[in-house]
Structures are given as structure tokens and as C-alpha cells.
């Protein structure tokens, strides 16, 4: 009975991005088929809080730098930290479940009965209404955790009755787990119009909180729902999360880790909260990539939002948008590239805008950096021996690590041919069309 509930609530939760995949959990860890609806492998995603903990530790005093300027954590440091934290992760009888640095999230809704009318959402038409009581959810998670099938919880809910009632159930579930001694990762979803006092209580038990803004403009939001208030119910909650994050950082009373708490954390007293995220549904309304870029950029500039997730619209039978065409997954991918350029590469909004077409969208046929490069072809080809860090980051195929490698190499010697780059592990297949080395350059493809 409980397993059937988990399967249905896991399917209902699958529309919320977490950076992981169910098929990955089966392929890499052999998660049993009956758990496939609600166990996600997030080892390579930003939900892998172990990796985030390592990066944050190494750069604790360098918050003023861009991500690409921060120090790279060595594999030895990662292994050392893993050994320290692995004591809180149970050992499974199945060898494949004992891989180090695993991040397997149990991802479910607490309840799938919803008062809202989101035109794309499966919960508006679902006839099998089910919910988990806090004890049922805590018991289920504890069993899966102790048997090595999961290392963290991603908990959301439809709004059954009121945001207060639904949020209180999620809080009660998380509180039970903490009281039972679970010291691992919990991500809880903030529901629209949740009172601030409950969001603060969520921060006592969750490592990460998030609220889905779904759309980037008021008009776009009203295209997909008539029962939510965009500015008051959603955007203001982003500000609430930001204020809590700043308060926690200032007081430095949060836990020191992700998988395990520091000894100073007191259940129900000290906040575990460390970051917050959001999600945008792409293609469910008439918003273009310019609208999405504008909203993302303002959130990153004005708040401490950790990252943005995207979910390409997919029609669900029986919903008001069931006849709308599914959004191309390529668009979702291009927006993830854009988010990466903003957060990690330090690109300005203006630079990214130069790659948009006349309709305010990113071309699907080439990655975002290529679109930007073609729109700014007057600066290419770049002289590899004199170009600045910022200019080198514009080169398609060059990421922050590659740029650091190039800068280090040219401190040692003058780069005279592409083989000099290949010898230090730099891939030049894409980048060589945009570079000039000693007067040598291949044809500028697409220029």
C-alpha cells in the first residue's frame, strides 16, 4: 500500500527538475524496478551536495570571486572529506550501492491533491488522489536510507486545502526524520503563498529550499494559471528565501556540511538551510528566451539564488494544454547553457543577448557560445598569446579550466602551434576556428 503511494507520488513529482535521472539510478546503481518512480541518481548534478560542500569549503573566504576564479579541489581532498562524512551513510548489502560519492534522492510529493489550476500540471487531472502522512513518509525514507537505496530527500507537495496545511505536513515529515537522527540532505519545496513564518521553520530542517517561479513575466504566468498571484505569491517568496539566506550567512549558525551535521546543530533551533533554487517551465506560454534571460539575470543580481532549473513543457492528457505542442528539448538545453554562462563563466546579460535572433530566441542549431561568437565575429580570430581571460572565455570550446590551462602555458612559453595546446590536454577541434597562432588559422566556419 505504501509502495503504491510512493510510486504514484513519485510520478507526480517527476515534473519538478532536480538535475538527476531515474534511468541513471537503474543503470548505474541497479535500483530495483519498483523504486524507479521515486529514486533519482543526482551524483553528477548540483544536487550532489557532497561535491558542493567540498567546493564551498575550499572557497569559504573567496565569495567575491566568480566560480571560474575559485580554486579546484583535488581528488585527494574529496576522498578525505568523503571518508569523514561516510560514517553517516549506511552500508548496503548490495556492492553497487556502496560506491563513494553517490547521491541518490528519494523524490516524492507529500500529497497530489491540488487547489490550483495550472494548465500544464498532471495534478489538475489526476484521478488517483493519494497522500502520505508524515509518519508514513518518514518510515518509508528511513527504510530506503538504511538499506542504501537513497542518500537524501527531495520533498514537494500539491496544495491540498491551503499552503499552510500542506507545508506543515512537509515540515512534520522532515522534523520526524531529524528527531530520529537522520543527518543527511533534505530539499523542500516552498509552495506559492506560504507564510514567511513557515518558510523559516522549513529552514530549520532543510538543507536546500526552492520555489518554482514557472514563468518569467506576469503575463506569461497568467497564461498558465488563474489561481496564483505571481508577484505576491511567488516572487515575494524568492525575496523571503534571500533574506533568510543572508541572515544565516551573517550569523554563521548553519551546519558546516550537507550530508552530515556539525556537532553544534540543534534540531529545531539552528538552521540547516544553505541554498535556494527555482524552476521555469519552458514552452507552456508565449515567453521567449529574452524574457527568461531578463528574469534569470535580475534574480542573480538581486538575490543569492543558487541556480535555475528548466523543464521543457510536455503535454499531459486531460489538461487544458494537452493539445499544445511539446517544447523542443534543445531549447531547454540552450537555456541551461545560458544559465551556466551567467553563473559560472561570468558573462554579462548584454553579451548573451548578442546571440539571440530577431525573435528574441537562441538558435537551436548551435550552442550559445557559438551564437555569441558569430554575432561578435569582429573580435575573432583571437591571438592566443595576447588575448585576455575574458576574451578567451568567449571562444567556443573553451571553458574556465581550459582558459586557466592556456594562461598557465603561455606564462611558461610562447604558444606557436595547436599541438602545444593538445600536449597539455586542450581540445581544439571547435576552438581552432576562432584562434590565431603565429599567423596560422583555419577557416572561420560559419562566419
Offer a concise description of the structure.
By secondary structure, this protein is of the alpha/beta class. The chain has helices spanning 2-13, 22-29, 49-58, 75-85, 134-146, 163-179, 196-202, 218-224, 230-251, 289-302, 329-345, 349-353, 368-375, 389-393, 400-412, 418-422; strands spanning 39-41, 104-109, 152-156, 185-189, 208-210, 275-282, 307-312, 382-383, 435-436.
Describe it for me?
- By secondary structure, the protein is an alpha/beta fold.
- Helix 10 packs parallel to helix 11.
- It folds into 2 domains: 2-215 and 226-276, no CATH class; 380-447, no CATH class.
- The strands form 2 sheets. The protein has a 7-stranded mixed sheet with strand order 1-2-3-4-5-6-7.
- The chain has helices at 2-13, 22-29, 49-58, 75-85, 134-146, 163-179, 196-202, 218-224, 230-251, 289-302, 329-345, 349-353, 368-375, 389-393, 400-412, 418-422, and strands at 39-41, 104-109, 152-156, 185-189, 208-210, 275-282, 307-312, 382-383, 435-436.
- The chain contains 16 helices and 9 strands.
- The protein is globular, with a radius of gyration of 23 Å.
